[in-house]
UniProtKB/TrEMBL annotation:
SUPFAM superfamilies: HCP-like. Gene3D superfamilies: Tetratricopeptide repeat domain (1.25.40.10). The chain crosses the membrane at residues 117-138, 144-165. Keywords: Membrane, Transmembrane, Transmembrane helix. This is SH3 domain-containing protein. InterPro entries: TPR-like_helical_dom_sf (IPR011990).
Amino acid sequence: MAHAQQGPQAVFDEANNLLAQGQINQAISQYQQLENQQKLAGALFLNLGIAYQRIDSLGKAKYYYLKSAKFPETREQAQEALKYVNTQFSHQSAVLPQLPWDRATRWLQDNIGETRLLAIGLILFNLGILLFIATWFFRELPGLIKPLSFSVLGLTVIIIAAAFYTRYVNNRYSTAVMVTQEAVVAERPLEEAALVSRAFEGYTFTVDHKRSKTQPKWSYVRMSNGLYGWIPSKEILVL
């Protein structure tokens, strides 16, 4: 039966069998068929990572393990695989610690999400309004209810602002992984531009989509060591 007539689970099972039999490239082809159809799941990305690791394409293995780590059901396995893969790269990049606000934003993205944050903010806003209205009816407790209502409304503003900022960061910036052996990071999006640094397979970057969209073949990135520059888009995969 042709793959197009098979259900996603049948294609996935067949790809798993190919992987188990050592037919790695055929397995990757079928996994990517599901990826192209947007049939996305943690197990699919985990197995793609395993497949690329077996053919020593460690940059792509890291990329798919990072994608798999976003799914609760495969997070632990993917994180363990990442620890191993990160020790196998021939070049290691210096890594600057994230700023506290950047860590907080990343945590909100990964664990709550801007939509849920906004929903929490709206619930608290309604609660604050109800508490404020309650001061009209419970005049014996104005000293308690009114400050509480203002506190809730103040917290609402903070949460809604965090939701919109998280959405802005999520839309503008993405993590990318270097999947080729070596490339240059340049000051400008030109092959003859001055060199900022050299990047190697497995390096991670933060891609600025707003700046990158002005140059279709280049991506403006922040390296993990804090340097900024342009890298050819074909050298990286964006999460």
